[in-house]
Amino acid sequence: MTLTLFLVQMLNGLQLGILLFLVAAGLTLVFGVMDVINLAHGVQYMLGAYLMVTATALTGSFWLGLPLALAAALVLGLLLERLVIRQLYGRDHLDQVLATFGIILFVSEAVRMVWGSAPLAIPMPQALSGSVRLMDGLNYPVYRLVLIGAGLGVAGLLYVLVTRTRAGMLLRAGATNAPMVSALGVDINALFARIFAFGAMLAAFAGAMAGPILSVEPGMGDNLLILAFVVIVIGGIGSMRGAFVAALLVGLIDTLGRSFLTDILKLVLSASAASAAGPALASMSVYVLMAAILFFRPRGLFPAPA
């Protein structure tokens, strides 16, 4: 273990945390305001990557393809809300889980029919294809730094949107008492549709930004969705601040654990035992963290007001 390797893995963990936040933010909005458990959020992340593949192929440019892919994801989110999610408002959470799991199966097969099962790639923008020197012996890819910066920018914009705008006021009011908001003349179905579509677009943005550094393939959002639910539980259900802090925490714990836990175990175990136990314990680390936090804070780190 060297300082350079540790810093690189810290940055990689921060990058994973940013992707987790973009996915978890949409889940937090949908569940916190609409009280809908959306298991299909992972396929919206996957769709964002595939839409980005098509958009960059059509336009020949990453920068032109990105807004086109996000617009398409927004429209698909509105369509999905109107056709399926709207029928689930006020119903049992089990009904929502079953319906959104069906969406996962449908969208995954549709993706295979349209794009095939072979992994695809999104060309990295030429301007962001190099690396930058952060310190002696430490060069880090420019694109990954831009991804981190873009995620932090989105987090800042979300904070302003939720706390400083009329749309954020309606969002917070809808999360607190949706029937009262409807009684005051606000079209609650239209509000829910915009929230769901915006959450879908956030997930699609994460998928589109991850495409140049990860392979675009069916099922690419499944593991990220599981971690996103862990993020929501750790941060506090319905809390955007909690989702941000927990996403960074989970990203760092997961990345550093997979990189260094085996070496740490070799200090107290034999090399063969550490090599066998390290990867298994590393994959469990975020769930152990979740259990420990819930033991001391059952509602998460930053629970939303009851």
Task: Name its key features.
single chain; ABC_transp_permease; two-stranded antiparallel sheet; 306 residues; mainly alpha; 2 strands
Structure summarized in a few sentences:
Belongs to the binding-protein-dependent transport system permease family. LivHM subfamily. The chain has helices spanning 3-34, 41-59, 62-83, 93-115, 142-164, 166-183, 188-210, 222-235, 240-265, 271-296; strands spanning 131-135, 138-141. It has 306 residues and is mainly alpha-helical.
The average pLDDT is 89
Order of helices and strands: HHHHEEHHHHHH
The helix-and-strand class reads mainly alpha
Morphology call: globular
Strand order of the largest sheet: 1-2
Number of helical stretches of at least 4 residues: 10
Number of separate strands: 2
Instruction: List unreliable stretches of 5+ residues.
Output: none
Main beta-sheet annotation: 2 strands, antiparallel
Query: What is the terminal separation in angstroms?
Result: 45 Å
Which value, in Å, is the CA radius of gyration? 20 Å
- In percent, how much strand structure appears in the residues? under 5%
InterPro entries: ABC_transp_permease, BCAA_transport_permease
Protein name: Branched-chain amino acid ABC transporter permease
Subcellular location: Cell membrane
Transmembrane segments: 12-33, 45-62, 68-85, 97-122, 142-162, 192-214, 226-253, 273-296
